[in-house]
Amino acid sequence: MKTVNFFEQKLLNKYDTSGPRYTSYPTALEFSDNFSNDELIRAGQSSSTKELSLYLHIPFCHSLCYYCGCNKIVTRHTAKADIYLDNLEKEILSRAQTFGTRSIRQLHLGGGTPSFLSHAQLSRLIANLRNNFSFAKDIEMSIEVDPREIELELADHLASIGFNRLSIGVQDTNQKVQKAINRPQSTEFIQSLIKRAKLVGFTSVNIDLIYGLPHQTKETFSQTLDDVINKLNADRISLFSYAHMPKVFAAQRKIRDEWMPSTDDKFALMKLAIETLSANGYEFIGMDHFAKPTDELAKAQQNAELHRNFQGYTTKGDCDLLGLGVSAISSVDDVYSQNVKTLKDYYQQIDNQGHAVVKGRRLSQDDKIRRLVINQLMCNLYLDKKSVEQEFKINFEQYFADDIRSLSPFINDGLLKNTAENINVSPRARLLIRNICMSFDAYLKNHLNQQRFSRVI
User: CA nearest 67: which of 264, 273, 246?
Assistant: First the structure.
């Protein structure tokens, strides 16, 4: 894929602002405390889909990565995970009463660091899930792992209990960068882990990379990319921008400002990564993922079947998403819900109420219409207006009259075409797709003066 047109500096400067990543619409900022667990149960009972994706949040990490803004608990005491699993199993049992007959097409363990769990703890968790839910024969089971605290045999154990997809947090292979973010690790071990995973039956391996980290330069990041492409040979690569917000995340205060690449240097790192990965056979998926042409994500994008949810880009958009564990988010039918964010509150609420829901949102008809529009644009850079009209019985031009007017700057800059039949986003605007989607966001005006979103570029 040619990428040179992605990087017109004048346009990127013009549209470089803060905005949602649209893993949902409305975003989590619109979730309300005035939401009950009963609403999630009713949504599960009334949903027309019989297929389900499960997300389980495992919050524990062995050590603190200074860049991280995730909901995590740093501890060396693995026994704490047994207490967590005790409570998680109570939540699983409760949710199985509503969702137990659904076909589980996808299971993902995220965190934190799910590989914090011992072999016995992982086996216990998966056995409990299988006892309470109906796993599809072709289920996609994935897990995030930290390569610093595991042995190669973990791949064998994961395969033996059903996992077939692996996601490894690499971030950067340069030792100076790793030291600055408190994440020293061996590229050679990661290479061996991937080989072992493929040998025992894993069908896909994802690598996470971050640009904008301390001490990163074009030279060092070029070597990191070379390592990922030629040594690790990942099927998928997630490329994320580091958001340095030390006032929000205390751990980031250990990263000195003078270590950080400048805005121009960070942009150059992003440009280098996109061009390098594209030149080496990876398809650019959405706005921050890359996949080999044979990968499901690439095929889904080619067929305009790509979807986006709280976990990012996915091929299982037709499934409801049920989140389990502390801070986990669910998307079921026309309802979003989120569990409590602290471990103490999670345990207390599970004991007292049998669930951990703390807030959520039932989507209005307008929410559902705009969700479809934004999802189609985010995933496929294309929107068929007639399909929206048919599904929701509206006149697109009349319904979105104000929103369409706000597209004028993009049209004038040659970034999209708006016809009576469709909205077609130019490949030149791939890095600005969040900006375009913001035109259809009915809530954004309430947040224009609040830096609650990440930078678009």
Answer: 246
The pTM for the full model equals 0.93
- What pLDDT band is residue 450 in, cutting at 50, 70 and 90? very low
In a 13 Å sphere around the CA of 273, the CA atoms on its Cβ side amount to: 29
Pinpoint the residues of the chain covered by CATH 1.10.10.920: 1-26+364-457
Closest by Cα among 185, 187, 197 to 157 = 197
Q: pLDDT for 252-263, tens place per residue?
A: 999 999 999 998
- CA 404 – CA 417 distance, rounded (Å): 11
372's enclosing H/E stretch is: helix 365-380
Beta carbons within 8 Å of 364's beta carbon, 6+ residues apart: none
Burial class (CB in 10 A: 0-12, 13-18, 19+), 408: exposed
**Which residues make Cβ contacts (< 8 Å) with residue 202, sequence separation at least 6?**
155, 158, 159, 163, 164, 165, 166
* Residues forming CATH 3.80.30.20 domain(s) in the chain: 31-322
Query: Residues near 206 by Cβ (< 8 Å), separated by ≥ 6?
Result: 142, 165, 166, 167, 168, 234, 235, 236, 237, 238
At position 165, the amino acid (one-letter code) is: R
Classify residue 254 by burial, with Cβ atoms within 10 Å: 0-12, 13-18, 19+.
middle
d(CA 362, CA 406): 27
CATH ID of 1-26+364-457, from 3.90.550.10, 3.40.50.2300, 3.40.50.1100, 1.10.10.920: 1.10.10.920
Topology, domain 31-322: pyruvate-formate lyase- activating enzyme (3.80.30)
